[in-house]
């Protein structure tokens, strides 16, 4: 697995370990928080360097690939030229993986591949693909190439389109941590109107979905979401209630981008059909996030 | 320029040289037919090797890039896994080019990017894109990435969709050389029904179009074609008449693929608007090809 040090990667890694997989965890930089053990090896590799994927796969000879690494700097990643580098690095990784005996791959896409100007409920093989950002366009091109790779080499390739993941290790600037962080500090939480309907899924359930796609040799695109529309205002108010801090909420003071869709939800029928089930509902998930952020102070 | 030893590349190279450009000609393998001179340097580089593009661009520091290299083995290239490698290598080349000061790029696509099940006259920003082959899908993904590259770095990127080029140095297995070759040897030329309407353009005019896109800092997609529908039967019969060999033609003995479109023509208005004009019409072009192949015996 790549991106093992990331928000989603950390959760995937712990679930794979708990399930007894032999894991080679790849990080973008050296890490100090884990030592190799019998079942897990750690590798610091800059996959953007041409040739790095080849060396890695030659050493590890992985049977399965779960590729999470991508540029993910909050704010910046939507428009970064590094998106293009990740497309190229991903194809190089797939080729090296196949060249050294790889048998099955799960890659990660995004709801940003879909046309957001439509009805808002996204179905894998029905909703038009029309990414509006460099990030979405790069993910979508990678999907096209990964799909072609799978066909050319007869290797099962699953493409996991993640919607709105939240939970432990999320970047502090994103919605749930930003609200929790402000309220825990007794500061006001400046929000948009909050009327947007979004598909929130606890990151542990996102990770479980990725592991499930690995387990079942899944092929094709899968939305990774709860399938439930949640009004962001409800999320924010729930968090504030748990913290007795409703007086700190300021709705309507942050403008909403013109292209911000009112509704963006995953149809998760294809994911459910793999046997995956979420462990968290919205409240238990937010409680878990809240407990974790409290522990970080 | 890459692909300098290829069918189209040879013609581009001679035109650039004649026009006084300083050219760095990149070949997939070492070549013996040309020595460096004041205006042209030759480089043997396997661009599929990760890191090769970076070394090349670091040495050459090209201002303009004309990227022709791709897998092109007749028959095989439609479905080769090497198509994917060329996508990855092309992005790597674009990045290295930009990194070392590159200012403008022309890349080569194909009519195989279009949906062939439509009316058959292809317009760059109207005809649906629906490539049906690994080659077409890879070219199309590369176009999406090249377009994004141009936007992210504010570099003019032109995408030249070539239709049916013919002329000196064409691969012997393709239509025009195959018919000429058979008839020159006094063998029968086995053909399909020949009723397909195609857009034929002499390779020197294809090359001139690519050079023109370089000259005018073109941006976006350009069909490279004559704009004229030509029945393949007319091409074959014309060649046979010139060789007094009409008795050797066998029409209808080679089956036509089910997905072979009856009509596939370039709308070349965007190309004409750059100032490009073809030098050859169909007859003078075929005469030129014929003369060249005669000289090869």
What does this structure look like?
Two copies of one chain form a homodimer. By secondary structure, the first copy, chain A, is α/β, with parallel strands linked by helices. Chain A has a domain at 7-167 and 199-228 and 265-272: NAD(P)-binding Rossmann-like Domain (Rossmann fold). Chain A has nine helices and 14 strands. In chain A, helix 3 links the parallel strand 3 (64-67) and strand 4 (104-110). The first copy, chain A, is globular, with a radius of gyration of 19 Å. The two termini of chain A are 30 Å apart. The mean pLDDT of chain A is 95. At the A-B interface, helix 3 and helix 4 of A face helix 3 and helix 4 of B.
Number of helices of chain A: 9
State the end-to-end CA separation of chain A. Answer: 30 Å
CATH first level of one domain in chain A: Alpha Beta
Number of strands of chain A: 14
Unreliably modeled segments of chain A: none
Helix fraction of chain A?
Answer: 25-40%
Second rung of CATH, namely the architecture of one domain in chain A: 3-Layer(aba) Sandwich
Largest sheet of chain A: 4 strands, parallel
Task: List descriptors.
homodimer; 297 residues; alpha/beta; Rossmann fold; four-stranded parallel β-sheet; four-stranded mixed β-sheet; 14 strands; 38% helix; globular
Topology:
The structure is a homodimer of 297-residue chains.
Chain A: H1 7-18, E1 23-27, E2 40-44, H2 52-60, E3 64-67, H3 82-99, E4 104-110, E5 121-122, H4 134-153, E6 157-162, E7 164-166, H5 175-184, E8 189-190, E9 197-198, E10 200-202, H6 203-215, E11 220-224, E12 230-231, H7 232-242, E13 249-250, E14 263-266, H8 269-272, H9 282-296
Parallel strand pairs in A: 1-2, 3-4, 4-6, 5-14, 6-11, 7-10, 8-13, 9-14
Antiparallel strand pairs in A: 9-12
Helix pairs in contact in A: 1-6, 2-3, 3-4, 5-7, 5-9, 7-9
């Amino acid at each position: 697995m790549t991106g093992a040090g990331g928000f989603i990667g950390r959760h995937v890694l712990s679930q794979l370990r708990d399930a007894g997989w032999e894991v080679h965890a790849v990080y973008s930089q050296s890490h100090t928080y884990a030592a190799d053990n019998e079942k897990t090896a750690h590798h610091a590799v800059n996959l953007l360097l041409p040739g790095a994927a080849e060396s890695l796969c030659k050493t590890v000879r992985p049977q399965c690939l779960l590729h999470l690494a991508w540029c993910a700097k909050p704010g910046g990643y939507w428009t970064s030229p590094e998106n293009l580098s990740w497309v190229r690095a991903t194809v190089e990784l797939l080729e090296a993986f196949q060249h050294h005996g790889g048998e099955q791959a799960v890659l990660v896409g995004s709801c940003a591949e879909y046309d957001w100007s439509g009805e808002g409920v996204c179905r894998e093989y029905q909703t038009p693909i029309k990414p509006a950002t460099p990030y979405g366009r790069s993910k979508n091109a990678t999907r096209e190439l990964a799909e072609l790779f799978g066909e050319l080499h007869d290797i099962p390739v699953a493409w996991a389109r993640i919607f709105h993941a939240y939970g432990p290790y999320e970047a502090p600037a994103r919605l749930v941590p930003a609200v929790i962080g402000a309220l825990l500090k007794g500061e006001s939480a400046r929000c948009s109107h909050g009327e947007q309907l979004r598909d929130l899924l606890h990151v542990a359930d996102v990770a479980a979905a990725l592991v499930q796609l690995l387990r079942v040799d899944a092929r094709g695109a899968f939305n990774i979401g709860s399938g439930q529309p949640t009004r962001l205002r409800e999320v924010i108010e729930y968090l504030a209630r748990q913290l007795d801090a409703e007086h700190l909420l300021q709705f309507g003071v942050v403008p909403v981008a013109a292209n911000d869709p009112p509704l963006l939800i995953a149809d998760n029928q294809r994911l459910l059909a793999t046997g995956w089930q979420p462990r968290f509902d919205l409240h238990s998930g937010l409680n878990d996030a809240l407990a974790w952020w409290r522990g970080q102070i």
